Amino acid sequence: MAVIVTGGAGFVGSHLVDRLSATEKNVIVMDDLSSGRIANLESALSSGRATFVYADIAQGADRLRDDVRAATTERITEIYHLASPASPEAYGAHPWETLSVNAIGTMSLIEIALEQQATLLFASTSEVYGDPAINPQPETYFGNVNPIGPRACYDEGKRFGEAAMSVASSVRGLNGRIVRLFNCYGPRMQLDDGRLIPSLIDAIMKNQPLPIHGSGEQTRSLTYVDDIVEGLIHVARMPMTRLLPVNLGNDEELSVLALAQMVCSVAGVPFASAQLPARPEDPQKRRPELSRARSFGWQPTTSVEDGLRKTYEWFMATALAYA
């Protein structure tokens, strides 16, 4: 039996591959390396339990099926679909590819999952809620999303992926799961990917003021990557009689300014900020309602301060290693 992780060379994907390869004998990592890095997989590949396949998940079901067959003859039991640009800079630079991997890629993986009788977990995002009119955001909230706005390729790509999963589950018998990830952070993020925590750490490492877009009063709820990985596996393997999206995040809501000050405290440097224009259609509130996840037996366990400290220490160690 084998497990597939698409986008497995990326930030969250590679941590998931590490976790799976510790217990599974055959983990197939599928990635086109547009935002992922082989270096993230060093430990998993050296264990002999993970195999890397260079593949574009949006290439269509027939070619994707050939890639899977070339990688293994074993039956696929689980597919974790994480392939997609996830930062505003990444999906802003590759909007068509972002739409394709979440639409065509998801539909192709549905076909493979049905053929293999595998569980398919689709990693969606809190961005499906857009700039929410209610706070916190429960899974029953339909969102406030601009379908032709600057974030639409990501927001609507994920919303389409959820719709495809829903139809395949109700009409074709797919054993599907949908998780909505909230602002994940941790080691292996890229300093230049534009997301909040690496941008703040990058400024500290360069001895520059911390970039604050807009007023800084907009809020985020940060989830450490280890908690997200546990949640992904937990949701994929729990009994579920019907498809229900599950928020995975941390419901400790903090302003961007408070988070920036916390990063400075962890790094042991004085707080100094540089005010920048607000990002277009930047959500002003972001906090998951976690009742469903908790009823299923999962909740985050890493405090924001501990997670930020681990993340900062990893970035510093990586910088020293390449100095």
Radius of gyration: 19 Å
Q: Give the helix level as a range of percent.
A: 40-55%
Low-confidence stretches: none
Mean pLDDT: 95
Task: Provide a compact summary of the structure.
This protein has 323 residues and is of the alpha/beta class. The chain has helices at residues 11-21, 42-46, 61-71, 88-93, 95-116, 152-172, 196-205, 225-237, 256-267, 291-295, 304-321, and strands spanning 2-6, 27-31, 50-54, 76-81, 119-125, 175-181, 184-185, 210-213, 219-220, 223-224, 245-248, 254-255, 273-276.
Description:
This protein is of the alpha/beta class. The chain is 41% helix and 17% strand. The protein contains 11 helices and 13 strands. A 7-stranded parallel sheet has the order 3-2-1-4-5-6-11, sandwiched between helices. A two-stranded parallel sheet has the order 7-10. Strand 5 (119-125), helix 6 (152-172) and strand 6 (175-181) form a beta-alpha-beta unit. Helix 1 packs across helix 8 (225-237) and helix 5 packs parallel to helix 6 (152-172). It is globular, with a radius of gyration of 19 Å. The model has no long low-confidence stretch (mean pLDDT 95).
What attributes characterize this protein structure?
7-stranded parallel beta sheet; alpha/beta; globular; 323 residues; two-stranded parallel ribbon; single chain; 17% strand
